[in-house]
Dystrophin (Pediculus humanus subsp. corporis), 225 residues
Amino acid sequence: MYFLSTVSSTVSCAPVFDHLRTCLKVTKLREHWDETNSKVLQRKAQLDAMLGDSQRYEAKRQEVDAWLTRMETRLERMGTVGHTADVLEAQLREQKSFHAELHQYKYHVELFNTLTQKLIAVYQQDDTTKVKKMTEQINQRYNNLNTSIVNRGKSLHSAMNSLHNFDRSIDKFLAWLSETESSLEGVEADVDRLGTRRDQAALRQLLPRIKVRLKIIFFYFFGKS
């Protein structure tokens, strides 16, 4: 009787054990679902944040790209270095204005670099190769503009210094020419006073030719400018 009672009790408990096992499975399944759902939500939040950062990055990239394109076009339209003071002065003003704007905009380029570094640091598990490449291109274009305008400034200052030196050379030559003409006039006066008629006639024919040649020399070297 005891054996039968035990067997009967065990049989009657079987549904309870089955229910407990089912409950445990459901609990584990629910825990797994909660964990998976949490990871999915976390990844979604990360992707949403990445989308926001990417949109800010792209908006800034387009802004900087448009500015660089405008400045590159402006630089290309600058004429060759002039040869006169008024042209050089205008070109120097243009160069200084360009360089000042370039320096002021550096803040935006640095901000763009900051956005890039944030994307690379926060999303290390994602492919940021394209972002790095685009940022390198932006920085290279900015550096090229800066180098070009600095070199243009040096060329303009060199041309202006050469022009000033040229002006001083002209002043010295004119002073020498005036002094030479005065000396020739003095020689001519001395010939009139002391020389023979034949010498006077020869020198009077020679002196105008000397003056003409001096003027030809002057215009050959300086008249073209």
